[in-house]
Amino acid sequence: MIRFYFHPTPNPAKVALFLEEAGLPYEAVPVDTSKGEQHSPSFRAINPNGKVPAIIDTEGPGGKEARVFDSTAILIYLAEKTGKFLGKPEDRPELLSWSLFLASGLGPFSGQAVHFQFAAPEGLDYAVNRYRREAERHYQVLNDHLEGRTYIVGDDYTIADISAWGWLDRASRVLKGAEDPLGPYPNLKRLFQTVDARPAVARARAVGKNHTFKTVNDDETKRSLFPSNYPPAA
């Protein structure tokens, strides 16, 4: 059994999609990051970095319980555990390269673009421009790579496509104000639509719908989501 710790944000969404695609039995455990639940000692024992997603696999390697945190690590772990969505063995170097491109590039720059356009104080034009342009650059790199390709790696749907879907689903926030945010990236748009049409996506989107997460953006939320912006309590 997999215990899946999540909040309805892009990185947990990737793991939800894999779990639904693979048909793995799992228990969804909500972590309300706007209330600071990710900083509790019990959750920090699962992910010392205090972020979702994370999983506990009660049937890990050698039958021992295993914890895995960071969405890319979780996708690789579950793909290797199940033998699903890894592509062909000869494509493994490409799979690792593009998975880490998404993990260290497109994802983080998209997240920072959202932060500085929606959450940061006004007047930080340099930061807004920096992260918005870098997000666009990563979009372009992946769009160019996808020319003549259906999927990111080889001929198969893999964890790289699942990973890309999680953040491309938020393109309208990453590229704030764009009427058709993926319009300038037709290959990327086609990939997103291809993945988004899969039946497992609707099931992944439904994860957590029975739980009421905090939506008020008050001081508690800001301190919970951006603790490094605040001095530690005396």
From TrEMBL:
It comes from Bradyrhizobium denitrificans. InterPro entries: Glutathione-S-Trfase_C-like, Glutathione-S-Trfase_C_sf, Glutathione_S-Trfase, Glutathione_S-Trfase_N, Thioredoxin-like_sf. Residues 1-86 form the GST N-terminal domain. This is Glutathione S-transferase N-terminal domain-containing protein. Signal peptide: none annotated. Residues 88-225 form the GST C-terminal domain.
